[in-house]
């Protein structure tokens, strides 16, 4: 059961997050931040981060260029986290059954928010002609109301009225094992879809060596951090056992020796450095005139 104060806090955050995204841009309007806030309010930060992180990966390559509307994954993260914690829904099922549909439906409220702000924009134009600076500031601030309500109102209504419906829907889905498994699989594929969209818009072919280097670094650091974590756990156990006066060797559980550090990852980094060196040398040769390449002299018109 979602408490009234939780509904109030999540509604206020939903109002603020879109205004932050349009003005301050402090990342408070991102899905992962929304999942964290919703999880904090609902008392389960881990679930909030799982849902918010999954939706963040899904919308990595999605933008609003030219004023176009996009799916509202932030509000979807708020509602999915709230209902997942309150109703005990699996986070992956919550993403596919709640977050994604809500994110798609709120495209319409986003359009309504964009249309309604034109009223205040025209009032600002009229105030500019009158040199009414107070009117300009007042209507600029009032323009935040339709934007905030375009998120806060749907979130409030869903949290206030949708608990029973969501619970019934999830129960029906879980009665059919194949459907629930399919939704879980779809939820796991969404981050991959987000990366695919992002790579589609990035100049990957021109910077393929950077992509390979990032993959190599990630693989290497995963091994390093995993072994350092195991080492820290072993040391803490060793200290605890020593304090209790027991045999010190009983606490030694760290057996990794970093052999998992792949030489392939190291070679990828080496290839990156070689490519960068080659490109820099090639630019130098192309930029310098033929007459001055051997002498190394730089003329005034070469700067």
Structure write-up:
- This protein is mainly α and 303 residues long.
- Helix content is 77%, strand content 0%.
- It is built from twelve helices and no strands.
- α2 runs parallel beside α4 and α4 (73-87) packs across α5.
- The termini are far apart.
- The model has no long low-confidence stretch (mean pLDDT 78).
Radius of gyration, CA atoms, in whole angstroms: 27 Å
Order of helices and strands: HHHHHHHHHHHH
| Principal-axes shape call | globular
Q: Tell me the number of strands.
A: 0
Proportion of residues in extended strands: under 5%
Helical stretch tally: 12
Q: Main sheet, how many strands, which sense, barrel? A: none
Q: Averaging pLDDT over every residue, what do you get?
A: 78
InterPro entries: GatZ_KbaZ_carbometab, PTS_IIC_man
Protein name: PTS system mannose-specific IIC component
Main location: membrane
Keywords: Cell membrane, Membrane, Phosphotransferase system, Sugar transport, Transmembrane, Transmembrane helix, Transport
């Amino acid at each position: 059961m979602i408490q009234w104060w939780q509904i109030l806090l999540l509604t206020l955050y939903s109002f603020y997050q879109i205004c932050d995204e349009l003005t301050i841009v402090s990342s408070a309007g991102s899905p992962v931040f929304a999942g964290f806030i919703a999880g904090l309010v609902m008392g389960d930060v881990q679930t909030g981060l799982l849902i918010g992180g999954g939706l963040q990966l899904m919308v990595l390559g999605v933008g609003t260029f030219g004023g176009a509307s996009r799916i509202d994954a932030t509000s979807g993260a708020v509602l999915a986290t709230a209902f997942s914690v309150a109703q005990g829904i699996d986070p992956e099922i919550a993403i596919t059954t709640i977050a994604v549909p809500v994110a798609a439906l709120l495209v319409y409220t986003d359009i309504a928010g964009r249309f309604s702000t034109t009223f205040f924009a025209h009032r600002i134009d009229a105030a500019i002609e009158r040199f009414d600076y107070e009117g300009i500031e007042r209507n600029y601030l009032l323009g935040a109301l339709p934007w905030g309500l375009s998120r806060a109102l749907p979130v409030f209504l869903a949290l206030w009225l949708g608990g029973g419906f969501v619970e019934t829907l999830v129960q029906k889905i879980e009665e059919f094992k194949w459907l629930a498994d399919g939704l879980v699989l779809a939820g796991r594929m969404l981050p991959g879809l987000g990366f695919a969209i992002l790579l589609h818009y990035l100049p990957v072919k021109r910077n393929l060596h950077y992509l390979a280097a990032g993959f190599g670094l990630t693989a290497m650091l995963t091994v390093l951090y995993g072994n350092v974590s195991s080492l820290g756990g072993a040391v803490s156990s060793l200290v605890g056992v020593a304090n209790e006066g027991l045999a010190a060797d009983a606490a030694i559980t760290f057996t990794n020796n970093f052999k998992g550090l792949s030489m392939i990852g190291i070679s990828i980094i080496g290839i990156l450095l070689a490519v960068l060196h080659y490109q820099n040398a090639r630019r130098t040769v192309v930029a310098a005139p033929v007459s001055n390449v051997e002498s190394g002299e730089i003329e005034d018109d070469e700067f």
